[in-house]
Specification:
- The complex is a heterodimer of chains A (210) and B (51).
- Chain A is an all-alpha fold and 210 residues long.
- Chain A folds into two domains: 36-102; 105-193, no CATH class.
- Chain A has helices spanning 9-20, 23-26, 42-63, 65-68, 72-101, 110-132, 137-152, 164-193; strands at residues 31-32, 208-209.
- In chain A, helix 3 runs antiparallel to helix 5 and helix 6 (110-132) runs antiparallel to helix 8 (164-193).
- Chain B has a two-stranded antiparallel sheet with strand order 1-2.
- Helix content of chain B is 51%, strand content 16%.
- Chain B has helices at 3-9, 25-43; strands spanning 15-18, 21-24.
- Chain B has a domain at 9-43.
- By secondary structure, chain B is of the alpha+beta class.
- Chain B is flat.
- The A-B interface holds A 36-39, 41-42, 86, 90, 93-94, 97-98, 209-210 and B 30, 33-34, 37-38, 40-42, 44, 46, 48-51.
Chain lengths: 210, 51
């Protein structure tokens, strides 16, 4: 016997998606007046930097250390990967400052705040494993310093910073996957609830800018 | 890398120390730039969008 359409999980999921995140919210063409401020730019600047990180990282992964340690274009791509990470963290921290001082968890946005905070922590882990997989004396030095810290916490046997294979897989596969999912969920939550209004915003004075 | 930039980067970082607290000048500069960007983002008026 076939299950009625309205009870199928696909129909329930579709209904829930359409109720919570209709296409007008997902791809809006207008924003409240208070969004006309530079402080609202840093979230999307963080995502732009993440895009450059992923693109340069994919090139580095395909070409390999023998390329990015020796050729000029390899060194350039390696530096682009490094500096886009610096920009990513700078933009993300300024985004965090802005959202903290406007108490952006207001208006049932606590899950947006939490996914952002967890994404920040995962970004730090991803960046630090990046330092460990440079395949040079710098990464060797950092890993031998870091192992003492992890051993003192009792997790050294499980999280082995001197294990290049483990660190490489964490850096290029596991952690970016988690960060990518968290970023996607974070952005979808922002689209669902909308951008948080300023603390002193008057509900009647939120005209829309196209 | 050649020139003044290479010689500037090719030495150990200089640290500032106040008791238990210490920070490299390069890290301090980055933090100050971020604070300046944060202040500028709040104070500088955003160009008007489409009405």
């Amino acid at each position: 016997m076939s299950t009625p359409t309205h009870e199928m999980w696909t129909a329930r999921l579709r209904g829930a998606w359409q109720r919570n995140l209709p296409i007008e919210k997902l791809l809006p063409d207008d924003q409240p007046a208070y969004v006309v401020s530079w402080i609202y730019v840093f979230g999307v600047a963080t995502i732009a930097a993440l895009g450059v990180i992923i693109a340069s990282g994919v090139v580095l992964a395909f070409q390999g250390p023998a390329w990015y340690h020796t050729s000029d274009i390899g060194n350039f791509t390696n530096s682009m990967h490094f500096w886009s990470v610096q920009m990513f963290f700078a933009f993300m921290v300024i985004h965090l400052w802005g959202k903290f001082w406007m108490a952006a968890w207001r208006g049932n946005r606590v899950r947006t705040w939490i996914t952002g905070a967890v994404a920040f922590v995962v970004s730090i882990a991803t960046a630090f494993t990046g330092y460990l997989v440079q395949t040079n004396f710098d990464s060797q030095w950092i890993s031998f310093e870091a192992k003492d810290g992890f051993n003192s916490m009792g997790v050294g046997a499980w999280f082995t910073v001197t294990n290049l294979g483990q660190m490489l897989l964490l850096h290029v596969a596991f952690l970016p996957l988690i960060l990518g999912v968290l970023t996607l969920v974070h952005v979808l939550m922002v689209r669902r609830r909308g951008v948080v209004p300023p603390i002193d915003a008057v509900p009647g004075n939120m005209e829309v800018h196209k | 890398m050649t020139g003044w930039l290479a010689s500037f980067l090719d030495h150990p970082a200089t640290y500032l120390k106040w008791g238990w607290f210490q920070i490299s000048i390069s890290n301090l500069i980055v933090i100050l730039i971020m604070l300046a960007l944060f202040a500028a983002a709040i104070l500088i008026k955003f160009p008007k969008g489409r009405e």
